[in-house]
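ok, trying the design again with the full structure, not the truncated one.
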């Protein structure tokens, strides 16, 4: 390439280096290991069951046919969305999909002493209380009919209690921290939850739910799940619930599962990654790159 002078060549090289760093950084920080946007080819009202699961998952979604496809995504602030959403149109109904455990980026998230982040958008379109929803990473479908707890299941995630309060949770068959044999009430034990509600009684309400799992340093140390409800500016904010009661064996986590008691609840934009940034990807890496180029050009003009 012809350069009119050495300074221009040096500055062009500077821009190229910056571009590489920005793109690498965007990929590193904003890459979700698991992503489900429910982007199916079906029409509204079609069953979620039988549709291919999303990125980082394997096989098809399976469960009860009261979970239907909703064409519109659940938007929240500037959060990037795709496809539609999963809408529950009936009573207790569990939905699950396998996780690709051959993906080393995923298995790295399960290491003792490490961290895992997850997020999802939730919309509750009916004012009726007592929705009792849960979402978890587990070694199998967490519940069945009427919220029955499946024996031998270990999981981490969050739930919506009968009083419509969001809470963080660790499910463990060996030590369930007062959870008991069903999923119908919030856990007792060493769980701290602030007052937060999912329904205002009159209008559809959407929430962006973010969870941070800090695995115990060893298999004998408790795992901690911290839950956040960021505002539409996507600032993480203060924790709304912390659970540090239970030790889960995350080594067998091969399933993504969710369920709900009442109809009128939709879930969308499920993400799992290594940090908060992976649950709130930039609207476009190229937009970020363009902004950095603009800044770099100003810096070059000042240096010239």
């Amino acid at each position: 390439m012809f350069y009119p002078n050495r300074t221009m060549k040096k500055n062009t090289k500077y821009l190229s280096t910056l571009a590489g760093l920005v793109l690498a950084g965007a990929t590193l920080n904003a890459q979700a290991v698991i992503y489900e946007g429910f982007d199916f080819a079906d029409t509204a009202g079609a069953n979620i069951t039988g549709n291919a699961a999303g990125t980082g998952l394997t096989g098809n979604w399976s469960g009860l046919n009261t979970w239907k496809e909703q064409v519109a995504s659940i938007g929240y602030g500037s959060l990037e969305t795709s496809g539609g959403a999963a809408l529950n149109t009936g009573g207790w109904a569990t939905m699950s999909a396998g996780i690709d455990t051959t993906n080393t980026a995923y298995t790295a998230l399960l290491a003792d002493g490490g961290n895992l982040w997850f997020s999802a958008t939730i919309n509750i379109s009916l004012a009726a209380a007592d929705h009792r929803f849960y979402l978890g990473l587990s070694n199998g479908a967490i519940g069945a009919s009427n919220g029955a707890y499946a024996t031998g299941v270990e999981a981490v995630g969050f739930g919506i209690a009968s009083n419509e309060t969001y809470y963080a949770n660790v499910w463990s068959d060996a030590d369930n921290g007062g959870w008991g044999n069903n999923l119908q009430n919030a856990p007792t034990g060493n769980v701290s939850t602030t007052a937060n509600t999912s329904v205002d009684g009159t209008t559809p309400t959407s929430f962006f739910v973010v969870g941070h799992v800090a695995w115990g340093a060893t298999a004998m140390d408790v795992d901690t799940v911290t839950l956040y409800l960021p505002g539409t500016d996507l600032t993480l904010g203060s924790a709304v619930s912390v659970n540090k009661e239970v030790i889960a064996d995350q080594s067998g986590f091969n399933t993504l599962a969710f369920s709900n008691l009442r109809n009128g609840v939709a879930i969308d934009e499920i993400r799992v990654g290594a940090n908060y940034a992976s649950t709130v990807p930039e609207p476009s890496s190229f937009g970020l790159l363009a902004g950095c180029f603009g800044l770099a050009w100003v810096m070059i003009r000042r240096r010239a």
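Keeping the full-length input from now on. The first strand starts at residue 34 and ends at 36.
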